[in-house]
Specification:
The protein has 9 helices and 7 strands. By secondary structure, it is of the alpha/beta class. The chain has a single domain, classed as Glycerol-3-phosphate (1)-acyltransferase (3-Layer(aba) Sandwich).
């Protein structure tokens, strides 16, 4: 079984590269056609199709989405936040049934193939610890939200080091309050075992993303950023034990 899974892991790496290479020309054309669109909706849909296709073609991974999205999410933008256990998270979250622009660390945009896909897909780069980059990212997120598309942010800023200690930063919650945009938490479980941090291999397993209840921000102020952050983190933390038990992760 270990030899078979190792062979499937090698296949999965090759399959991912093949998918990105196949989708890049389509992403590039869509990027050029829609370069003036602040929502980047069309390129983003191709980017998520890439994620769904690559995730579906590996026999090692099984993904489940639980919960119902807000009924108005395609008409009203949300700030979407999720815990971030693994590099496999984007493949799972690409299955969420609505359009989003994603915020990702700048280093990812510099990688060959996948970095080009992120750029062409309309995602938003952030250089961590750089105030100018943070302000630029926030401005672009505000324009996208005003244009009517949701924003996806991992508020930990990097992958979770300790499953029981999610350290959310304030940026996503400040953005939601300043723009009076509902905040939508997503709980992710099981992906850490699929693609362990710093590990060269891809493992077999089942992962789940659970859509939680949105949190209103209309009457909140800057003084409420910390409380909104903690409510979101607590909502995610509350459902993770059940998800891990049910999916064996």
């Amino acid at each position: 079984m270990k030899i078979r899974d190792a062979a499937l892991g090698i296949y999965t790496h090759l399959e991912f590269v093949t998918c990105v290479t196949a989708f890049l020309p389509i992403l590039a054309v869509s990027h050029l056609r829609h370069r003036g669109d602040v929502t980047q909706r069309a390129p983003g849909r191709w980017m998520r199709r890439l994620g769904r296709t690559a995730g579906a073609l590996t026999p090692l991974w099984n993904f489940t989405i639980e919960g119902e999205p807000p009924p108005d999410i395609e008409r009203k933008a949300h700030v979407v936040v999720a815990n971030h256990p693994s590099e496999a998270d984007p493949f799972l979250l690409a299955r969420l049934p609505w359009d989003m622009r994603w915020v990702a660390k700048e280093e990812l945009f510099k990688q060959p193939l996948t970095g080009w896909a992120l750029t062409f897909g309309g995602d938003i780069a952030l250089r961590r610890g750089d105030g100018t980059s943070v302000r630029s990212m926030m401005d672009e997120c505000e324009r996208a939200l005003e244009g009517g598309i949701s924003i996806m942010i991992f508020p930990e800023g990097t992958r979770t080091r300790n499953d029981d200690e999610m350290r959310f930063r304030d940026g996503a919650f400040d953005l939601a309050i300043r723009t009076k945009t509902p905040l939508l938490p997503i709980a992710v479980a099981g992906t850490k075992g699929l693609r362990p941090k710093a590990a060269p291999w891809i493992a077999r397993g089942h992962a789940c993303a659970k859509i939680l209840e949105p949190l209103a921000t209309e009457h909140l102020t800057a003084a409420d950023v910390g409380a909104l952050r903690d409510r979101s983190r607590d909502a995610i933390a509350a459902v993770l034990p059940d998800l891990r038990d049910r999916y064996g992760c």
